Amino acid sequence: MTVQKVKNTKIPIPPLDEQKRIVAILDEVFEGIDAAIANTEKNLANARELFESYLNTIFTRKGDDWEKKKLKDLVNISHGYAFKGPDFEKSSDLDKPIVLTPGNYSEDGTLYFTSQNTKRLTGQPAPDGYLFDVGDLTIVMTDLSSKMKILGKPAFIEHPNILHNQRIGRIHFQSDSVSPRYVYYFLRTQLFSDSIKATATGTMVRHTAPKRILANEILYPINLDEQSLIITQLDELAMEVQKLESIYQQKLTALNELKQSILQKAFSGELTAEVGDAAVAGAKEVIAA
Q: ∠ CA(79), CA(85), CA(87), 5° rounding?
């Protein structure tokens, strides 16, 4: 919407006493809804912290027959192809390969593709040797945000026809003594994240590099069966946390929609004390569900 359209928008202006009545109801209703939102956001944060706490505990304890090695002794990391900006763009053509970018990574160690962040190669044929294999483990080496929310975040390639772009690291395993998924979970720890952020370069755009990533030490059980057991436990806990996150996100969406509905009623002359009470009751129901 343009500034001129905003200026030309007409809003109903009831008498001052009616305005005060509406504002009083809105204040009361929004206080209840905002409290419900804050409670839901706290529960969401607690669910995430539960997983992070357990994850960090796994990789900071040392059991019997565990080893500590630098990542460089177990894996190597390669850079991607330096695609030029005009070579890839937003496209819905499923036959064209996706050029993986940092914008495809989430903080929870997964890749996601939407109409806004999916860019496909359109300007040239795909270069040889730069298509990922399904199952490849990758890591972000550039973050456009100074807060570094995705710098150093890992993700597995789950679909074919995805190209290895520069500033995305492709992890190559040099040893079969450690499981790729075990390394993946290590890369999701706060311990590793703190190390990557502490050694990052750049100001607004932040960077890490293979050498800095590979300098980190990882604790792991020598026994592969024990690694598998740990991975299973982490997979199951991650799944439960994802379920909780989905529930809490749905509640947040419902509560914000309830706020918009109340505002709409306020500016259409439909907001009464009974409607306000019903909204507060509705917010409580959302929390209890």
A: 90
